[in-house]
Amino acid sequence: MIKGIVIGFILAIAISVGCVFYYFSAGMAPVATADPPMPFEKKLANMALDAHIEKQHIPPSPVSADEPNFLAGASVYKQHCALCHGLPGQPPMDYATTVFPKPPQLFRGKGVTDDPASETYWKAANGIRLSGMPSFKTKLTETQLWQVSELLAHANEIPESVKRVLIPDSPTAASAPPLTRSSASTCCAWARSKLLSIDAHNFRRQDGHTCRKIATSLIDQRSKRVMAC
Questions:
Q1: Do 161 and 178 lie in a common domain?
Q2: Which of 42, 100, 131, 186 is the most exposed place for a label (fewest CB within 10 A)?
Q3: Structure confidence by residue, pLDDT tens digits, 142-189
Q4: Is residue 147 assigned to a domain?
């Protein structure tokens, strides 16, 4: 009796593993950014992420949630985060609409104001694999990471002075590359130099078309000026 139960249990596991293997090896799993998510993909990913962060026992924020730190955090956020996660009162950037999973717009709705600053700090410092979220612990100081985290934890109550820092730049024609024939690398280099940028490694991996889209999104959204890259 017990032997039969054990054999049945082992067979059930083997069949389950075989089905999962076939699902992926047969090309049935979604891989394109436009594909729908796998069953329970979001739930399982969030469960794993939350459990892992909880085990880290991150200490409380060493910076206070005040206007000077919000201002400093806003400058860092605008330079390193806004391309994916947006700015107050602005639509998502073109880049953010072409990736999967879609990066959360942190100044829309509740953002991450319901998360402790320590959780946002861990995500910014360590990144999240297979999500497009890079690690910034070698790019930013501990203070800068905490300042951004405190800013986002209080995104629904930041003062007007901080909101002014987060207003999109409107580059003049002189600040953009000449509208003549230029290489994709020049286009990407200019985009990297603007405040709304992602890490240089990701830029270097993009083809000319994608770089043109990213660079164009850095120009005033209302003008929709197309760069001749």
A1: no
A2: 42
A3: 999 999 999 999 999 999 999 999 999 875 433 444 444 444 555 555
A4: yes
Three-class SS of residue 15? helix
Same domain, 136 and 96: yes
Please give the biggest Cα pair distance in the chain: 82
Say yes or no: 157 and 179 in one domain.
no
pLDDT digits (tens, 9 = 90+) for 29-70: 888 888 888 888 889 999 999 999 999 999 999 999 999 999
Q: Looking at the domain assignment, is residue 93 inside a domain?
A: yes
Reported as a single tens digit per residue, the pLDDT across 89-136 is 999 998 899 989 999 999 999 999 999 999 999 999 999 998 999 999
Q: Cα separation of 12 and 16, whole Å? A: 6
Boundaries of domain holding 177: 173-217
Distance, in Å, from the CA atom of 137 to the CA atom of 197, rounded to the nearest integer, reads: 16
Q: Is residue 88 part of a domain?
A: yes
Say how many domains are in the chain.
Answer: 2
Average pLDDT over residues 211-224: 51
Residue 116: give its domain's CATH number: 1.10.760.10
For the full predicted model, state whether its pTM sits above 0.85.
Answer: no
